[in-house]
Amino acid sequence: MAEYQQQTHGPHHQVPENRSHQVVKAATAVTAGGSFLVLSGLILAGTVIALTIATPLFVIFSPVLVPAVITVALIIMGFLASGGFGVAAVTVLSWIYRYVTGGHPLGADQLDHARYRLASKAREMKDRAEQFGQQHISGPQVS
Predict the structure, then answer these.
(1) C-alpha of 18 from chain center
(2) Are 15 and 9 a contacting pair, CB within 8 Å?
(3) Is the distance from CB of 62 to CB of 54 less than 8 angstroms?
(4) What pTM was estimated for this model as a whole?
(5) CB 3.0–4.6 Å: which of 21, 44, 84, 111 could bond 17 by disulfide?
């Protein structure tokens, strides 16, 4: 029988479930969905009631709350920026330490290549300046 069902439905198709199992699954889904729907309605009603009660308090205390919120936001942003810069500094210092002690941190090849190109360009400019100076010193002088 199992071979017949596999042949007719293929290896990836499931055998149809019995009716009672389908009814139990549907009842469970409807119960869970209905419960969540009622819960979301209650939360919406509670939010509206809380805003209705809190709005006059916000209006009364806004001269104090707005500057307090701005101050707290600035303090939090300052701490986050300070922490971020601290992490960046520790990362850079550990990279430099690994580079100086002979380790091969990520990006060391690019740094060496850039340093080589900069040094060669500096030597080239120095040679040009020397040639330019020699031309003007030994060039024809008209009196």
Answers:
(1) 49
(2) yes
(3) no
(4) 0.45
(5) 21
